[in-house]
Inverse folding.
């Protein structure tokens, strides 16, 4: 059974720092990996999706990498801002593109 | 603009009552999903559908049912609500059959007393 973990569970950084969030999964037979952002009391917003054949994706200050063989993905946030404060979740799908499994999330606080 | 809407946004009900949560999407795409989100458990898949008349069980389907009579709607029914079903419920869809990128609705907070 696929299991997804995220480290750290919470992170607090001063504004302007570059930071890395980690996501690990136990079964490397995935179809894709997706990173989401969730603000308190809100739904999930898709940030980046990496297909299994890709190594990384970039959107603005965000860069996500994928190492399928080691079961790891990282989300890099450059020059963090207070508006980046949220919970960040990763999710993987199995090789058939079904059965999304989510990690527990990393709660990020960026202090002004 | 294409979107996913959920209703109601908040619901309080009593144990044993039947409750239906609505999910409507305007993307006219086949794949739709229901999740629940709980502290300590994260997001877990309840049911999903790949098209009209197609429904499938997810990880935590006991006590829940869905029906798909058209492309736009996937209502989630709690046949006899239990306090353990107090949660936040999210509907999602993926809009690209190749990439399977999921997009979420705003959620429904359900409290079962």
């Amino acid at each position: 059974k696929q299991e997804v973990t995220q480290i750290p569970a919470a992170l607090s950084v001063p504004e302007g720092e570059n930071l890395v969030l980690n996501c690990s999964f136990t079964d490397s037979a995935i179809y894709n990996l997706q990173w989401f952002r969730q603000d308190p009391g809100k739904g999930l917003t898709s940030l980046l999706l990496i297909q299994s054949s890709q190594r990384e994706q970039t959107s603005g200050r965000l860069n996500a990498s994928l190492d399928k063989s080691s079961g790891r993905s990282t989300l890099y946030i450059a020059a963090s801002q207070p508006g980046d404060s949220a919970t960040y979740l990763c999710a993987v799908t199995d090789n058939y593109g079904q059965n999304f499994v989510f990690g527990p999330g990393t709660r990020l606080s960026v202090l002004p | 603009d294409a979107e996913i809407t959920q209703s109601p946004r908040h619901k309080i009900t009593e144990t044993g009552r039947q409750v239906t949560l609505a999910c409507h999407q305007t993307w006219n795409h086949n794949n739709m999903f229901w999740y629940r989100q709980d502290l300590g458990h994260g997001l877990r898949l309840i049911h999903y559908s790949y098209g009209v008349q197609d429904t499938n069980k997810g990880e935590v389907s006991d006590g829940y049912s869905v029906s798909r009579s058209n492309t736009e709607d996937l209502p989630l029914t709690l046949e006899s609500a239990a306090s353990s079903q107090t949660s936040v419920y999210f509907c999602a869809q993926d809009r690209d059959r190749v990439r399977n990128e999921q997009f979420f609705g705003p959620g429904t907070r359900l409290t079962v007393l």
Summary: The radius of gyration of chain A is 13 Å. The longest strand of chain A covers residues 30-38. Chain A has a mean pLDDT of 94. Chain A touches chain B at residues 31-32, 34, 36, 42-46, 49, 51, 89, 91, 93, 97-100, 102-105 (CB under 8 Å).
